[in-house]
Amino acid sequence: MLISQLGGEAALINLIRDKYCAEPGDDLALGIGDDAALILCGDHYLVVTTDMLVENTHFRMDINDAYLLGWKSVVVNISDVAAMGGEPTYAFVSIGLPDIDVKIVEEIYAGMRDASAAFGSVIAGGDTVGSENGIVINVTQLGKVEIDKAVRRDGAKPGDAIIVTNTLGDSRTGLELLLKLGMDDARRVGSFLVERHLKPEPRVFEARAAVGTGKTHSMMDLSDGLSSDLQKLCEASKVGAKVYADKLPISKELHIAAARLDADPIELAASGGEDYELLLTCAPQDAPKVIKAIQSAGSKAQIIGEIIDLEGVYLVSSNGTANPMPASWSHF
Ligand SMILES: [Mg+2]
Known about the structure:
alpha+beta, binds magnesium ion
């Protein structure tokens, strides 16, 4: 059976989890299924996550640059550490390379080093291997979090406010501009959006501030898009959600680009991936405190909906009609 026939990436992950992965137990507090694993280590948790980027699946060198590719490959992992409430510490980098200019390889590593340094981490080791079919980068990121501050995605409760940081859909819109116009023209007409796609910022300090309130029930980072990621959070927590279309934070740059691309800004914000913003829930009465904490760490945050005691994730339009949220993009 092909992966696509099995039901795609999510079905494959379920199969691997059910047949081959360890259940939590002993020092393994949390295994497969969240943004990162949590392993008891003295008086705190070791946070472990890994992510692979493959040329022509996740990135194209003709609309990228080597430094930013390195930056992003580390940031997507640091974002998963942040999503648990953790602080990144050490990265291990495995890289598959065709016979390319050493300068390009050094630029990739400079991007990885700088992204690590910006968020308190360092590259501590890794592996290199030849690759016939383009560049492959795998980063394993370690981090740490206090036991009482770790936040998982399975803690959302009916009635919780759903909060996101900053604006949504910018990265996907930046990618659409890059694909349509190429690097130079895309940067000219939408530099903010292109930057959001090529040089994302993980919300480490914001996540630390949120978990520092002690009020955050569940949290994850937005890597695949709100509709897909909120679905995962709801499935883990055995709840549903309503999101209000007119509450979705959308940048003015996205509105302008959407008109140019003949795309729907709401759909871009609801299903566009790779923003690496935070998605979190807390009791509605605690939302002002959590939002204030996130703002003090340098980002905007707003309530976009609420957790409900029903299955499914719904987008409520401004006229009050609720529809299932549009599906996100899938690799398989
Ligand atoms: Mg994640």
